[in-house]
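Dear colleague,

Following up on Tuesday's group meeting, I ran the structure prediction for the two-component complex that the binding team flagged. I've pasted the input sequences exactly as they went in, so you can double-check that nothing got truncated or mislabelled along the way. The structure tokens for the whole assembly follow below. Feel free to forward this to whoever is handling the docking comparison.

Inputs:
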Amino acid sequence: MSVRFARRMDGIKGSEIRELLKLTQQPEVISFAGGLPAPELFPVEGMQKAAQAVMEESPRVAMQYSTTEGFVSLREKIVERMKAKNGISATVDDVLVTSGSQQGLDFSGRVFLDEDDIVLLESPSYLGAINAFKACSPKFIEIPTDGNGMIMEELEKVIAANDRVKMIYVIPDFQNPSGRTWTLERRQKFMDIINKYEIPVIEDNPYGELRFDGESMPSLKSMDTKGLVVFLGSFSKILAPGYRIGWVCAAPEILSKYVCMKQSADLQPSTVSQLEINKFMELYSLDEHVEKIKKVYGHRRDVMLETMKAEFPEGVTYTHPQGGLFTWVVLPEYMNARELAIECIENNVAYVPGGSFFPNGGHENTFRVNYSCMPDDKIIEGVKRLAAVIKKHMK
Amino acid sequence: MSVRFARRMDGIKGSEIRELLKLTQQPEVISFAGGLPAPELFPVEGMQKAAQAVMEESPRVAMQYSTTEGFVSLREKIVERMKAKNGISATVDDVLVTSGSQQGLDFSGRVFLDEDDIVLLESPSYLGAINAFKACSPKFIEIPTDGNGMIMEELEKVIAANDRVKMIYVIPDFQNPSGRTWTLERRQKFMDIINKYEIPVIEDNPYGELRFDGESMPSLKSMDTKGLVVFLGSFSKILAPGYRIGWVCAAPEILSKYVCMKQSADLQPSTVSQLEINKFMELYSLDEHVEKIKKVYGHRRDVMLETMKAEFPEGVTYTHPQGGLFTWVVLPEYMNARELAIECIENNVAYVPGGSFFPNGGHENTFRVNYSCMPDDKIIEGVKRLAAVIKKHMK
């Protein structure tokens, strides 16, 4: 058999994270590799009641086909939520419900990117986005970042020098993988630049509501006067990922392309999932639930950073996220976190090697650590195991 | 604002069916335009119990992320079902759960088709597949069909003359839109041809279990000795579409590409939907449920065909499907079903103009009619309204 696949499949391989997750599912492994929400915090009783109510009140609506754009009541709630949490003024017509925000990433690539078009992103950036865009065979240019976010002088230099920049992908709040948040000044400067060059921006915001401390920052979309920003939101981290419900908010000219893409990709989001989440938000306060999550995750971040401070040798640095799920560790340059990962798994602790978050390679002395889905004692023990392996390799 | 989209977006427009459905949602319109299952047949009580059981027994599994390939217990049931209903020998590792079989179509295009590659399909073929493939900018070659399915001499001629044929898309059972089913002889001849040329085949089978009369035919996949056939199945028509659960069954070399595509497209199928359908199949007999559907749909087909026989003028023909949801009407060549559709909607009856099912255009004297989601009196009244409009235009 000699089946010929499309060329785009050459660059696509399985996600390293998913493969790692398989390796780390033995109960003895303390895994900081995933990006899972803490299951013990899921609002089980609330979703039970919501599911029951949907199946009693409107089972035949829930089980039938529905519109591509998504259930209107849910989109209304999304619009209200974006207003309250992200300062975004939108209407129901600006919102498309998607299968998680990963689908928004996939559609973004397909809507904007031809082969060899340039996509700009933070260095490092989210692996799932890089993989989604790769299916369109673009060129990636990484824009350097520091503790305050993307470095705007570098961004403008790259845009000015390249006329095939079709799209910029960013995660300004509690970035995956770095845990960093852009300052207000960087956001303003960013909007000045994209308004000048009129380049569409994908603002990925799955963690924005999970701020533990510091001041809330306005979303890029809330500062968007030209309809250039495509905002991606998700219920995965604030409610539960198993429903696969996220959304895209964009100007009509752009959103209509995403809607066409949704039609041909899978017709519509799950009616059942949409109705159940919608009902939950009618019966309960999602805000109250998010407060609970934030308290627990904020505490776990503290435990992790304190343990790192106590255990990691000098020369190893890590970020201090004000929210979200991840911190980012930088080892001395002579170390290779991909090689170390194997030794760590042998010592029953796991992370994601950082090299995967750089589409153009390099930076193999970095790794991403998740703190959201682990009790204190495991965090402490896991960081100790990490530190022990790292120390063995310090020069 | 002058945002530049990807070239692939040029060819993609909203589905005509979805736009039509919007027009026909007024209660006074009798719509034969959709392809909706009958909601009064949904196993509401069973799915209520299943949802409740899932949320009591394993809520935190249901609400969490899961594997890309899908829940193992559900895939086991899919494997059993394909064995029993389609004669397919497969293992769990050959199955990927998708967001409806529409996602299987989208992935098929993306896995196999580069720009200007040739995809072969029946003339006419399913609009949703044509739209999904269009996102990869292929060339379509339509293979003529007759009452026995695709005409194999024509197929072989086209394959022999074109070296960029990358994929063949077919619906051998109760085709959408024609309602036709391939004979055993055609299936055997088809497999001989594709084995000779080693071309991958997408066998779309959403309606296969809905046979009202005549003899069951083996699936192409069951006759596939070289791992060339990709089989697409779905729970949408045999259970309910609102869960968005379908599947792909293919040889490992091919399936691994679909799994990578699933990862980057939306990470995984909905865990909640999968667990609920899986639980339903544990608690109840899906076979019994399908028997009920078949009885009702078979009766509705009879009512529709009898009314067409009584009401349609000579010179108008229609197919006699042995199963599925659709029949296909051919008007005299001087009529235009797209123009007539507007007059029909003014007279409160709707169908889908047939021209949309031919990727290369033409055949505007045809239309598709659905009989699954309408009670007898509406079917009779609707066909009478259709007949009245048609008669007005007969020469």
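DSSP finds 13 helices and 14 strands in chain B.

Cheers,
M.
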